[in-house]
Amino acid sequence: MTVDDEPEVIVEGDHDRLARSIADQLVSTLAALQAQGRVPSVVLTGGTIADTVHRAVAERADDGRVDWSRVDFYWGDERFVAPDSDDRNERQVRRALLDHIDVDEARVHPIAADDGTLTLEDATARYADVVRDQVFDIVMLGVGPDGHVASLFPGKATLAVDDRDTVAEPASPKPPPARVSLTYRALNRGREVWFLVSGAGKSDAVARALARDDVTTTPATGVHGTEQTVWMLDQGAASALPADLR
Ligand SMILES: O=C1O[C@H](COP(=O)(O)O)[C@@H](O)[C@H](O)[C@H]1O
């Protein structure tokens, strides 16, 4: 993003309206890319608004606009827990969306779970192989009240990693502690980056990121799309923004 490429800010009335709007945008964007003969790639996120978005996409899945077997799905981060743990971002997305659409499992690329055979570092290295040189069409990211994105948390050494695509986070301040995350280097290969943020509890983090606060205190500042960066907010999440941005 150059200085001229200001992020776009979209504000919807509330959580559910925001989720429906994002779901519509996702379906339209994927359909348009497929109409160009492309197999779109999407980076998925965990979190509360993301879960509502995934359910809203599933409700739209039967309209035939998207061939879901011709979409590549990746994850921006994952909790390194047992495969059947409800803490897995993969499990959350499968329940809300992937179990309801006709995906090609060869195009679903989850981050490895703690199945007893792998270390956190093994899972991190494996995902680096999966995403190597991958350019993502859409990167969707939730944002924490502390400004974290994926599993890049304020003050952590992982924020400075710029020589690889994945990092291990063994001590996340938000449970569960063991996580694997894409780095800025990988996330910033996204053509379009969409921040999905709901609720007044995140309004300060949103305001700091859009004011370009330092990444060490607001990690979300460091992610931007090569073509477009869009902050998709509800009124609560937008409530600390200056009036011209709301
Ligand atoms: O831990 C995580 O948190 C964020 C945001 O979650 P939320 O519940 O505050 O919406 C999420 O984007 C990330 O993928 C996840 O691992």
TrEMBL record:
It comes from the Bacteria. GO terms for molecular function: 6-phosphogluconolactonase activity. This is 6-phosphogluconolactonase. PANTHER family: 6-PHOSPHOGLUCONOLACTONASE (PTHR11054). Belongs to the glucosamine/galactosamine-6-phosphate isomerase family. 6-phosphogluconolactonase subfamily. It comes from Mumia zhuanghuii. Pfam families: Glucosamine_iso (PF01182). It catalyses: 6-phospho-D-glucono-1,5-lactone + H2O = 6-phospho-D-gluconate + H(+). GO terms for biological process: carbohydrate metabolic process; pentose-phosphate shunt. Residues 14-231 form the Glucosamine/galactosamine-6-phosphate isomerase domain. Its EC number is 3.1.1.31. InterPro entries: 6-phosphogluconolactonase_DevB, 6PGL, Glc/Gal-6P_isomerase, NagB/RpiA_transferase-like. Pathway: Carbohydrate degradation; pentose phosphate pathway; D-ribulose 5-phosphate from D-glucose 6-phosphate (oxidative stage): step 2/3. Hydrolysis of 6-phosphogluconolactone to 6-phosphogluconate. The keyword Disulfide bond does not apply. Keywords: Hydrolase. NCBIfam families: pgl.
